[in-house]
Write a structure and sequence with these properties.
53% of the residues lie in helices and 9% in strands. It has 16 helices and four strands. The mean pLDDT is 93.
């Protein structure tokens, strides 16, 4: 094999096509140019999670497009959020050795296995992008979401079917059926649907329906933090940023705001909204009041500050003069941990 300059070069020399997805914060395709700049150490990873790049690859030969090869890889990032040449070269060497030995065996310290729910959403999204058919569970899930069997008849709806519907919101009137389904379906199937929706752009009508569920939860005396977290995840990719901001503001002003599950969902999925002054101010106050204490506060802030574009928002927020004494103390302890 000729000298290999990177992962992209290796795959091209092997005569394959490929697509790359972020698998950390949400399953979203990474542009080819962006990935090449990352793997060559020119740019930081766009969506780091826990100071790592979590990647999913779909690889195929054009003449055998149905025989997909799937890789799940995670690479540690340096202090600047970039991939070091040593790690990239070590991974490449392993790939080349495996190819030369014609081995299917994976002795790869960079591999990992995503959660089953992520696997289902990844396969649904990859099939949609590559114009491959949905799974056999698709039609049954579509029927359920249209309300035909009744929304209480969810026991036999497959998660893969829901993932396929969400990956195909732009066809078969799938998006049109969702608002009414979200309003009426029981909590358990809604949780499954929410885990699929978090990876997809949703419109104003779907966002509004999720917002109604949020308001109903906030009116309860002891709302479920898990359900509230699922609502946040489900609407995190909404194209209606104003409505999303309003709903998040209501959540962050509620007694549920300081629950770790709620905070983790906002920081992990709605990080773009945290670039808004009002939202990040409310978020930091809630984070400082979280029962998980200083260690959790530090963990969340460090994770956020490693996302490209987040540094300015966080720096401005921690310097705000109207912050509470509790938040000031938490910020002081955070700075002490850096020194």
């Amino acid at each position: 094999m000729a000298e290999v300059a990177g992962i992209t070069d290796f795959l091209e020399q092997a005569g394959t096509q490929f697509r790359v997805f972020d698998m950390g914060r949400r399953i979203v395709e990474i542009e080819r140019r962006q990935f090449i700049e990352f793997e060559q150490g020119q740019s930081p990873y766009p969506l780091p999670l826990q100071q790592q790049a979590w990647l999913g690859f779909v690889v195929w030969h054009e003449e055998r497009k149905q025989d997909l090869i799937i890789w799940f890889l995670r690479f540690p990032l340096d202090a600047a959020g970039k991939l070091t040449q040593g790690i990239r070269d070590d991974f490449l060497l392993r790939l080349i050795e495996q190819k030369e030995q014609d081995s299917e065996e994976e002795s790869n310290p960079y591999g990992y296995k995503p959660k089953q729910e992520y696997m289902a959403c990844f396969h649904a999204k990859a099939a949609r992008i590559l114009n491959q058919p949905a799974s056999s569970y698709y039609e049954h899930a579509r029927d359920y979401l249209s309300g035909k069997p009744g929304f209480d008849q969810w026991a036999f709806v497959g998660f893969q079917g829901l993932a396929d519907v969400c990956a195909r919101l732009d066809i078969d009137d799938n998006a049109a059926h969702l608002p009414e389904a979200i309003r009426q379906m029981p909590d358990q199937p809604f949780e499954a649907l929410a885990q699929c929706l978090e990876h997809e752009a949703i419109d104003q009508a779907v966002t509004a329906a999720i917002g109604e569920r949020v308001q109903q939860l906030l009116e309860q005396s002891t709302p479920s933090p898990n359900l509230l977290s699922m609502c946040i995840r489900a609407m995190s990719s909404s194209t209606d940023h104003e409505q999303l901001k309003t709903i998040l503001t209501d959540i962050l002003k509620s007694p549920q705001a300081s629950h770790p599950e709620v905070l983790a969902s906002i920081s992990g999925r709605c990080w773009l909204m945290l670039q808004q002054t009002e939202i990040i101010g409310l978020f930091l106050e809630a984070l400082a009041n979280c029962s998980e204490g200083q260690a959790f506060f530090n963990l969340v802030i460090v994770d956020l500050i490693n996302i490209p574009g987040m540094q300015d928002s966080i720096h401005q927020a921690v310097r705000a003069t109207d912050r509470s004494e509790k938040l000031s103390t938490a910020i002081g302890e955070l700075f002490k941990s850096f020194t």
